[in-house]
Amino acid sequence: MAVGRFIVTAVVFALVWEFLARAQTGSMIISGPVAIAEYLTNNSGLIVRAATETTTNAVLGFLWGNLAAMMLAVIVTLLPRSEWTISTLALLVFCIPLIASGPILRVLFGPGPGPQITLAALAVYYTTFLAFLVGLKAVSQNWTDLMGVYGRGRVATLFTVRLRASVPYLFVGLQIAAPAAFLGAMIGEFTGAERGLGVLTLRAMRGLQTDATWSLACVSAGIAMLGYGCLGALRRKFTPHAPVILFSPKRLDLGRSITIQLIGFVSVVGLVFVLWQGAMDAFGLNPFFAKRPGDIFRFLSEPAHLNTLLAALGATLAYAVPGYLAGLGLGAGLAILLMLWPPVARATMPIAIALRAVPIITTAPLLVLAFGRGFTGTVAIVAVMIFFPTLVACLQGLRQTPAQIVDLFESYGASRFQLLRSAQIPAMLPALFASARMAVPAALLAVTTAEWLATGRGIGVLMALTSSTSDYNMLWSCVVVLCLVAVVSYAFVAWCEKKVLGIYANEQLA
Amino acid sequence: MTRADIHCDNIQKSFGAVETVSQLSIVFKSGQTTALVGPSGCGKSTILRMIAGLETPDTGSIRIGQETPRQVARRGGLSMAFQDPSLLPWRSVRSNIALGAELARKPVDRVDELIDLVGLVGFSDHRPAELSGGMRQRAAIARSLISAPDVLLLDEPFGAVDAITRRRLNRDLPPLWRERKTTTLLVTHSVEEAVLLSDRVIVLCPRPARVLADIPVDLHHNRALPETNAPAFRDLAMRVLTALEEAA
Ligand SMILES: Nc1ncnc2c1ncn2[C@@H]1O[C@H](COP(=O)(O)OP(=O)(O)OP(=O)(O)O)[C@@H](O)[C@H]1O
Ligand SMILES: [Mg+2]
Fold first, then answer.
1. Which of A182, A248, A406, B4 has its CA 20 to 30 A from that of A364?
2. What residues 155-174 of chain A have any CB closer than 8 A to a CB of chain B?
3. Which option is the CATH number for B1-77+182-247: 3.40.1280.10, 3.30.390.50, 3.40.50.300, 3.30.830.10?
4. ipTM entry
């Protein structure tokens, strides 16, 4: 029955798609299923080789990234004092836009799959770290008491209770990680690999080959969704009830004074610089391409260099900020609209969760085809990248409204709007802000990738240019500045969050 | 078996501004069973948790023989049945019970015997989610017994157990801990159960917890359970009840 309906839906979808494609033939925007199938059969050898390459890198990155994430989470559990430092460091690394580290990894690793694997690992580790840590901590006091009665410490508690209790959370994290790993591997290929789907995509886009672009986007999205589906099936096999996880770290501890937070933050940033310098020296990397903090500082002291960089940054932000706000606004807005029609919301939820998993970057070339290489296309890529995670988080947040409060409103015969305004939207705000924080690096990733692929402006282009002309000082400066922008924006959103939640959602948080 | 009296010496414990236990000194004799009764919220669980080493008194000290509670816990000499059964949902009943021995680093060889004792025969491969509340509590009791501890702390262990099973457990458990000379502390809300199972009943009054009455029970000269309608039993029960009414 369900299979039958699925087939009917798929056929109708394919027919509409084909119809649109035929109606649009002149404008070279949409390729229909027939054209795609034709392209795929004619180039099957090439596509299979490229897909194998990209998938292999994604799988390796998935394994390394998740392994690292799990080890970090275990360290934090065993040494609770290290939590603040490790979480902040992990967040800083997460803020590095992937496309920015691509070129640098490329020069450090040289040719080969190293950068793709590293980027895939970087794309997955943070969500897994968050999910696994939540799981490791989601242990009732009863169980830690039980361990205490037998005088057993953190290690025994980890093995007897925490690891097992965290399995459902880990699976939710791994499921999100599967398409993310694929995304990371693709981005690694954009930054100058020899083989893989990313390389073919880049070539197809630059050659304005519509059929090839569409075929590659379909193959990439298909593989990513397949990974998501497989891990989902595994998760359902082992843990029937998936817990709801907000993929976002806790806000900085409100109890601490702002001075202590600043000191902590500055020392972590200092630590990053020390690690950076130390790693370069320890591996004896050639200063020609492996720049140290000092080099960047000297380079940017030159006003001409700084101006070039800031101009590019300005252009980038002019795309990123509207896209970011549009993505958040549309996501939250649609969530609220759906909430007014609960049956529709229930039906949309699984679709939204599935679409959240599509690595949007794989479809970026299609958005460029549709909206052009300018402002609209780039903003659309950024907005779409942020839209789905925000929609899912906000729907989950709206549902978290305590049942008693809903009952109370209904017992007074309050309208849906009153309920929404006074109870549900305040309950949604924490989820909205959590996605707003996580969307900061995502927006920078989307905008720089779009620039790298298409627009010919901004910091993404500056990076593409400087990595091909071996202007490593400028390349490193771009990366450093992007990271700084990410961290500062993240902190700014967190600050707004604290202010807004303090006013509107205090009691819902308690 | 070493003589290991539990010495609570001037212990004091506050949660925030609320002083839960203040200047409490009690000695629990090794091998004896003591029942702690008192109004809800008077600090019974807190006292048990301090003796288990889960909380440390703010001032004063607790010694079990020559050792601290943590030391006894670390050598597996202590176990506790909590108000909440706290079973691990992914383990079967059998494996949850065995956990008590594993954690105490004792041999895991009496699981079947204990499953029989608490009346869970036929459920040993079930998960806790498939059991009733009373059955879970019985599994938790079995888990606390399997490590054959020197000190056994029972925090309302029969709360959700049905009347018939409760009577059976009341009959079957005391011989077990008497035989092993286990020092047992039992928190219960049933006056009859307190008198029936213990050598001594301590009535506590609340905020801060303080000993209101310390009533020795000398009905256990022979191995059989005391006769609940014997005048001696009814006298004792009456004394406990009077003290409790005063406490509330
Ligand atoms: N972890 C804690 N934090 C704050 N207050 C606590 C904590 N544990 C206990 N209390 C307080 O200490 C007092 C005694 O609690 P305790 O659980 O020991 O009572 P009890 O005698 O076991 O009650 P009951 O018979 O209902 O189980 C209560 O007022 C409780 O609010
Ligand atoms: Mg209690």
1. A248
2. 156, 160-161, 164
3. 3.40.50.300
4. 0.85
